[in-house]
Structures are given as C-alpha cells and as structure tokens.
Amino acid sequence: MVLYHDDGQVVAEHELRLEKQAKKHAETYGYTDQKEIAEQLSSQPSANEEYVYFIVDEQKFRTLYSKEGGDQTRYETDHKFPDLDLHGGRIARFERQGTQPFPTDGVHKKTLMKCSSLAHEFFSFDPLAKELHLPVKRARRHVANTKTYYDHHHPQMALIRSKPIERYIIPWIDRMRRREEAYEKDKQKTKLPEIALPRRLFSKIHLYNAMVQLDMPKFAQKNLISALCTEMYEKDLSQCELDALEITIGRFNSNAVGILDPVLNFFVGTYALRTLSDRQNHLPSNTREHKRAYMPRFLRYTNRKATPRDDTIIVPPKLPVLGHSIKHWSGLRGDDDAAAARTDFPLNVGKMKKHWRRSSTESIRDEEKDENNVVRYTEWSTYPFHGAD
C-alpha cells in the first residue's frame, strides 16, 4: 500500500522500501523485473532507423480449449478418432507461411507508433527493433526459480493476413504522416483521413482483424465496424463468412468475453431476429455437416454417450466462440425458439431508461428539450411499481 502526506505527495521512503521488496521477491523466484528491463532499454541509444517493417510469422492453429496432439485432417476424414478434435486437432486449412519484411520502403516509425498502440508499446520497450512481428501472441509463461520463459503450445492468438495491412493500413498511415507534416508546416488542422474499405465481406473481416490486433484508434475502426455489421445483418448466415470471423475476431477473444467486441456483439444481438430457416441453413456452400453424434456441429453444441451407461459428453461446435456466444447471449431457447429472445444487444449497448408507474394516472413519458429548443418525448416502460395499487 502506498502512503501519502497530508499535501497528497507520496512518501518517498515508503515507496523506495516497497520497490526494494519487490526486487528482492523477483530475484528470489528468478523473475525478470520488467522495470529493470525498461530502464535498461531506455538507457540505450535510440535507433536511428526512421522506418520499420512488418513481418507476419508462420501460423499454425489447433482446436481451441484443447490439449496438444492429434491431427485435424485425420479427424475430419476418419471416424476412428472421435475424440481427436477435443484433444487438439491441427487445423491445416488455416496454416500460413511466413512473409518477408514489408513494405519494401518501410513504414514511418513515429507515425506508426501514434496509430497503433501495439507498435507504440513494442518500440517503446525495444527502441532498437526494426521489425514488428504479427500475429499477436499470448503472454509467455515463467519457469519458477529460473530466469527462463516459454510460450504456450499455441501462442498465436488469431489468424492475420498481410494483404489488408499492405493494401489499406499502410497507405492510411502514409496519409496520416502527410497530414501531420502539413500541420507542422502551416499549423492548420485538416480532416482526419479515412481508411478505404474493401468490397468483399471476407476482406472487411480480415481488415478489421488486423486493425484490432494492431490496436488502432476507434475513430479509424468506426466506419469499418458500421459497414461490417450492416453487411452481415443483410446477408444470410451461409454468406457471412463465419469461418473467417471465428478464426480471426472470435479466436482473438477466445480467452475473454467474446461479445465485448462490437462486431460479435452486433452479430449475436441480432441473431434471434433472423428467420428460423436462415438459422437452420447456416452452413457455407462448400461445407458439409456430419450427422454422427460424436462429430462436432458447425454452431451447435451436441451430446454423445461417453460410456455404455447413460453418461454423456458435451461436444462443442466447430466454431466454439461463435457457438458459445450464440448459446448464452442470443436469448434463443434450447429448441431454437426465439419467442423469449431479447430485442436489444447482449450487454445492453447504449442507454435505456426504466420507470416504475406508481399509479395508473402517472405519466409514462417526459418532455425534454434538445439544444435547438425542440420538445422531445422520452418514453418509459409501463411496468407497475411493486406494491402499487
């Protein structure tokens, strides 16, 4: 606990003692103190390189929430391995080779750090680095009583493609740089440039995924999020590129609450508004769903017998993040009935007023005036107040 003087200043002696205790504790367990690393790196001369590069590493993915081992390709073709997917099947169709550093002329380092929180954190921590590696990885694990670390058996958080970065993000960063140079020259602010949006839904999903992994500002993502949500709402489920959404945004949020992402939130929040026929015919045209009990379905959870007795095992869907979010947040019943589904978003995005009527004569709406002095009416709910007549 930090102690403060009456004037609000931190007690320096107490803070120094806490830092010494933390350092001693880190040395006892062989943990590398992050503050020491940061101070060591900041003491080094800053890199003279004005431009840096992106590198997309080789990507391999396995079934979520599972152990290492198995082969997804054998699982999909051989019924002799019913538990293979649950124990870490390799998803071969999403494997990607690594890329060379790009673009050829590099990206302006200072502007990139302003437009990407990931780049700002990485190059601030290691100013001598010249390359930013993607995709984003999970935090490494520390080996107790040593100063060594190791990665998870599948550390990469989500698939990422280099094309959205090359075609859309890098040109936008260059425009941001020219805007900044123009401002330094004539001190006149101009409108922030907007990122060009691709036409295909598949490309929109991967562009949004790249922006999320780079942790770009919300004003840059706003138009893309709006276009992405609108197009997915207008299309049938079979045309919504759910595979791409799961391996990118879904997998990126697999260790968190998926619907905190605005795109997933909108998709799940409007899922119950789709027709029953659309929800039942959600498979892409080139996908076939096995009807065997031990084979996972596309979006639905299923059960299968674990032993000759009545015990059962829950089989997660092939798209676990989307399937889990739909099951728990869409409001649909177990039989896919939407009668009791909510009509707003899962986490009640936005503002909502609720008013309990204390009597039958009480007004159920209020008059409010906006900034133009125009009367607006705020509607209230008509639920009776508990205990009212």
Strand order in the largest sheet: 2-1-3
Overall outline:
globular
Number of discrete helical segments: 12
Largest sheet: 3 strands, mixed
The helicity comes to 25-40%
Please report which band the strand proportion falls in: under 5%, 5-15%, 15-25%, 25-35%, 35-45% or over 45%: 5-15%
Order of helices and strands: HHEHEHHEEEHHHHHHEEHEE
**Rg calc:** 26 Å
Mean pLDDT: 79
Number of strands: 9
Oligomer: single chain
Report the uncertain regions. 69-85, 380-389
Q: What is the SS-derived class?
A: alpha+beta
| First-last Cα distance | 53 Å
Explained architecture:
Helices cover 35% and strands 10% of the residues. The relative contact order is 0.08. It has helices spanning 12-28, 34-43, 72-77, 109-115, 117-125, 162-186, 201-213, 218-234, 242-252, 262-269, 276-280, 320-329; strands at residues 51-56, 102-108, 131-134, 141-142, 149-150, 302-305, 312-315, 365-369, 375-379. Among the domains are: 235-351, no CATH class; 353-389, no CATH class. It contains twelve helices and nine strands. The chain is globular.
